[in-house]
Amino acid sequence: MSTQQRNHACLVAVDPSTADVLRHQTLVVLEANHYFFEELPQFSPEAQHALSVIYRDAFAVLDAIGWSPDASAGPVDVPLTDGHIDQLRRCRFDLGVTNINRLDLLDAATTEEQAASIRAAIDADRTAAQTLDLQGERQRSPIHGRSGSRSDRDRPTKPPDLPCPAAHR
User: Fold this and answer.
1) Segments forming the whole domain that contains residue 81
2) Is the pTM of this model over 0.70?
3) What is the DSSP string of 128-154?
4) Considering the domain boundaries, does residue 94 fall inside one?
5) Hey, which of 9, 73, 92, 113 has its CA 20 to 30 A from 140?
6) What separation, in Å, do the N-terminal and C-terminal C-alpha atoms of the chain show?
7) Taking a C-beta distance cutoff of 8 angstroms, is the pair 162, 89 a contact?
8) 97 domain residue, yes or no
């Protein structure tokens, strides 16, 4: 019997602010895939293994960067596999779509406090998306699923080979 081998991870040095984005988005990856465990006994052994790889890759990232933010930490080497980059690509897509949907909420905001809160959320997700874009450029495997000018990367583009889960925040 042969055992599938995991993809080897590429170690990428990231600064603390990038680590914070990767931590949050990796937690989103775990949350987005948790419902598969409810039907795990019905999965084939290959599908069970595939799900375990998603979790192993995510936990390897979290173990490398730490489970909570540390402002005094320096750069850290993060193990990124092709599979985890694909998961982050889904997160990048969701961040863009969520921001587009928030623009409708901004138009409907009835108070300045609501509008400020929506703008802050848009800005936070835009910054996270840009961080994922830059991390993808470093990997030479774009997380955003598309190359081009900065304005092109700010627009969400669904990766052609991946279904996108609903945004989980």
Assistant:
1) 11-154
2) no
3) HHHHHHHHHHHHTS-TTS--S-HHHHH
4) yes
5) 73
6) 41
7) yes
8) yes
